[in-house]
DNA-binding transcriptional ArsR family regulator
Amino acid sequence: MFEFAFGVDDLATTWITYSPLQEAVFSLRARRRPAAYPHYRRWTASWEAEYRELDSALLDALVTPRVWVPDFLTPRPSSRRPSFESELALLARTAPETVAKDFAAAYRGDGAPLPEAVASRLDDPERLLAHCTAQLRGYWERCLLPRWWPRARAVLEADLAYRGRLFAEHGAEGLFAELSPQLSWNAGVLRLDDPDPRVRALGGRRTRVAGRGLVLLPTLCGRSAHTVIDPGEPPVISYPARGTALLGEQQPFPEVPDALAELIGPPRARLLLLLAHPATTTALAQRLGVTPGAVSRHLSALTAAGLLTRTRAGRSVLYARSPLGAALASGGR
């Protein structure tokens, strides 16, 4: 059990973002436990050849058998929507002694021995860190960035948009209650009950936010909310993002009812049905196999008609059904 105690001003410094580096590292969990992350099966199979050309033994060792991750591999973001390169640069500045300490803590907590790919390099943690950084860069550029990351980012952006609306409508208690069943809010204390017995064996602890800000990170490869192993690290909680199933096998296109197609046209009707979850122009274009320009024209028309809303998310724009659009989509079925 972990508790995060908030002072009077700490809610004002609580923010939500996502971390490309965390998602890259956490995606390695899908190799450790493929049955637990079925939405990754198609992806891991698609980049298997590229993965094997990297130091796959080391990359596999970055996640323990029970999918614990050494804390230094997922540094807390220092800005909203950081780039992978900026986070990798932060990782590369990790103190060598922290690398050895965090690997030992993760595998000790898991109850598993250090794998040879790590143990054989621990006498030179600075070199081990450089090798981890280089292999993660290769994994990102060759396996994740070309096709996986655009879809993953769209799902994460949609989660951020949803959480922002939830906080505005229901406040902190409503926000925290929706993040994960393991989280509860009471009298200025956020409580995290981790279901993992090995985490429970570490004992309970209370962390005072104390002006440092709590960072909330949605992840596409998490089954419950969790925090860092080291209690001395700044407060951060990762939680399962909404819509992770959208990463899985290609879903069949929704059937467009004739009445809806006659009313607004087949292309716009299909877009309206596809927007059961918020998405960007690029993500919709990839799903439909057309150019972003073609999709953009239809989205603009649907927005002008009051059927969609637009929300800027960093450099992207998320489209979602308006109440009128949702009523039309459900009524047309």
Residues 1 and 203 are 7 Å apart (CA to CA).
